[in-house]
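Researcher: Structure prediction, please.
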Amino acid sequence: MKLNLTIQPRFRLNFSPLVWVLLILMGIAFVTAMIRYIFGIGAISDLSYSYPWGFWISFDLFTGVVISSGGFLMAGSVYILGIKEFQPLLRPSVLTAFLGYIMVAIALLVDLGHPERIWYMMIHWNGTSVLLEIGICVMSYLTVLAIEFAPVAFEGFKLQKWAHLIHKYIMPFVILGVVLSTLHQSSLGSLLLIQPAKLHPLWWTPVLPIMFFTSAISVGLAMIILESSLSSRYFQRGLETHLLEKLAKAIPVVLAIYLVLKFGELAFAGDLHYLFTSGGFSILFWAEILIGAVAPIIWFSVRGNRKSANGLLAGAIILLLGMILNRFNVSWFAVRHPDPMFYMPAFMSNVHYMPTLPEISVSLGIFAAGILAFGLAAKYLPVFEEEHDPKAPSFGD
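Model: Predicted structure follows.
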């Protein structure tokens, strides 16, 4: 008789390839961040006193904030406007916004020259700085999002009484969240108002706050469509096509308003001649307009695209790419730096900056952490409507 002495492993990391990729990106970002904290920001970044804004600001801050705008849109629609049919889209949208703002906060801790002083804004107020309002809004809205998402966590841990308690008093927090997000989305545009001599006239305008808020609405709608589409594919759940179709139908209207504001302001300021005479800036401008506004207007105006799962996803991706390019343009590509005597694309300026691989790896790692956190929350918490406990409280109970 032969004895089988083979020892079977008791624990195996049976992750999917996607999870392994996310974990690897997070690990690289963590090591890079530790190098930054030990040896300083210059050890991993190409930023300088002449070029303090680069990839991190454009991708982590300006892009991270705008793709989080779906949370206040859905919360305002369901709670304030009472459009209860959008209830299935509420929790995933709030989760996306919550994680988005957490990622922005983490990215700022890496980007700031002295991250240990990030709390100084609470005791050293500069009432003339837009950054004070931005900092307060980020901190406050992140707290509001935590409160709005708390019932999901409580339901996941079978703490129905706590979930019911928050639902009962959630309306003031929703109103506060909508106000804070509106202020924050627009104040990022206000931050650029101090650069009339640095930001190219195709982008600089005194109505930048309104432009930022209007474009944020379109991005929020597109992000809801994107998040719903991708989660339905990954988690093999049904797609709320009938609801996403209504959101997609509103996108051409919002983008049409955006275009009227954009070109109307250029005409009023007498800057229309820059549209075709600004070299690389003209190319960047028209790429942003055609991809981020014109193409989505045409795409979502076709009823078949709005009713198709693939059509919804494709249109959302196109819109997001164009609007992300807009945020890169206003915060990086179209900003003039000291040496040149005339406007030229930032990457052609005499003040050189090129994002390093460590810079990009930090942003990719933070983004990967957000994706992984969303997946874990969706797997273990009742994020999607069909997973709710029928006895769980809903708003108004």
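Model: Confidence is low (pLDDT under 50) at residues 387-397.
Researcher: Thanks, that helps.
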